[in-house]
Amino acid sequence: MVDVPIQILVNNAGVHDDAVFPACAPSNGTACDVSLNGFFHVTQPLTLPMIRSRWGRIINITSIAGLVGNRGPGQLCRRQGRAARRHKSLSLELASRGITVNAVAPGIIQTGMIEGVFDDKAIAGMVPMKRAGKPEEVADLVGFLARNRPATSADRSSR
Question: pTM of this prediction?
């Protein structure tokens, strides 16, 4: 039996438990644990095997709120902003070893998480496409980012 390392990792854990700024607690341990520490504890042990094989894909599902801000979920914006900087740093660290690190930050996606939060009129006012995204659209993008493209001669000469 051949021991094959995990070479494609999709971090997709998240917790939605925010409040407007005046109602925020100074620290939300559960959400920070999932958003920041969970990423570390899953990703860190898998990077060395990816480095050894000189190929890997790390894809992090995050929130658009970390990039552009959002009214209401201040804690989410703070956590996701930290996550965006972490993704960029890790991509710079691992790129020369054939490992890509990408963050997918979809806007409003039609899941149970938005029920009772956004109605169709609100979505049409916030989203240029005038509709919530679909989970399968996000999945298609993640599949594209995870694909194994054939190595080019430039890739082989840089090893």
Answer: 0.74
Q: Look at residues 96, 109, 108, 64 and name the one whose alpha carbon lies nearest to residue 83.
A: 64
Are the beta carbons of 12 and 61 closer than 8 angstroms? Answer: yes
Max Cα-Cα span within the chain: 57
Distance between the two ends of the chain, CA-based, in angstroms? 27
pLDDT at 47: 94
Q: What is the mean pLDDT of residues 74-83?
A: 57
The tens digit of pLDDT for each residue in 50-73 reads 999 999 999 988 876 655 555 555
User: Which of 11-23 are b and which e, b meaning 16 or more Cβ less than 10 Å from the residue's Cβ?
Assistant: beebeeebeeeee
Q: Please state, in angstroms and rounded to a whole number, the distance separating the CA atoms of residues 28 and 30.
A: 6
